[in-house]
Each structure stands twice: as structure tokens, then as C-alpha cells.
Predict the structure.
Amino acid sequence: MDISHTSIKADKISPTRCQWSLRSPEELLYHDAEWGVPVHNEKRLFEFLLLETFQSGLTWTTILKKRPAFSEAFYEFCFERVAAMNEKDVHKLLTNAGIVRNRAKILAAITNAKAFKAISKRPGGFDRFIWSFTGGKTIHHHFSNPSEIPSRTPESHTMSYEMKKHGFTFIGPVVCYAFMQAIGMVNDHTTNCFRYLQLLP
């Protein structure tokens, strides 16, 4: 998720939260319950990967509002079933007003599901593969201002490069970093946010 822009200040909000979470009720709930929490369940990892690729160029609020429709359209984010989707399924998805009807992104979801499935068969699965880019643990940053938070890092560049080598697409360094933030590979809550301390080891 791109958190480089925010429209609402955190002043007089208790508890104090990251500024971006105040843009919508959906983002506030997501911020409090999910963003930055370490994820190791493969189905959940695929869900965040799929949603982040669809978010590219759009607001995260849009994706969160459409999340139930995405879940229904993509078999509750079962990567094995998504990997088996065909052109008929693509056509059906392109008529589904509940999701983002972008052919390139839909095809990427299927391609990525196939790559995800292949890696999931390895020892440790996709979980071990993806977490290897941060040494298997969360990187806890210490940003006090939202402007300090990067949109990409050396780790996300490496992740993007390696994922593309394994057949993933629509997965540049910015998308990779948003994915890292979402699944808790990095803790990018600002230091004044109540969730920052809660997520420290």
C-alpha cells in the first residue's frame, strides 16, 4: 500500500495513529487490526500479494472496499484454484463490477498464483521464501514522520528481482515494499502510533 499521501491530520485523535489510517473507516480498521502484523499463513500471504498488485495505481481504500468481492471472485484467495483459472474465467472476471476490471492485473493474478504454487511446494513454502528477504524477522524502523517512510528499499528491489526470476509479474519494488509493510516484514508504523510499540518484540 502506498502511504505517501494523507489528507487528514492525526491531531486530537486518541489513541494516536499513523496519519494515513484516518482517510477512511476501512483504512482505520485495517491499520488497527492487520497492517504490519507478521503473516506466515500461505493463503493469507497470497491474499495480500493479490490485493497489493491490484492496488497499484489506485487508493488502498478502493481495494479494501472491494475486498469481499475479490475474495469471492478469486476463490477466497486459494492460490491453487486461482492458478487453474483460464480464459473463460478471465472473461467472467472482466464483467465483475465488484473487483478492479483490469485485464493485465487479472492475468497477473493467475500468473502469480502459478508461481506461488510452485514455490509453495518447496521446503518451507512461500513463507520461507518471502521472509528470507528480511532474514526471517521483522525490520523495525523508527520513523517519526510519514515523509520519512520510503516507497521502496534495497530489500524490496532484491525481492522484486528474485520474484520476477520465479515467474511473478506486476511485482516491482514499490509493490514489493507495500507487500512487506502489509505482512509485517517491516514495521513502518510511525513511532507515535499506538501500534508501533505493540508490534515491537
Remarks:
- Residues 135 and 185 are 9 Å apart (CA to CA).
- The mean pLDDT is 94.
- The radius of gyration is 17 Å.
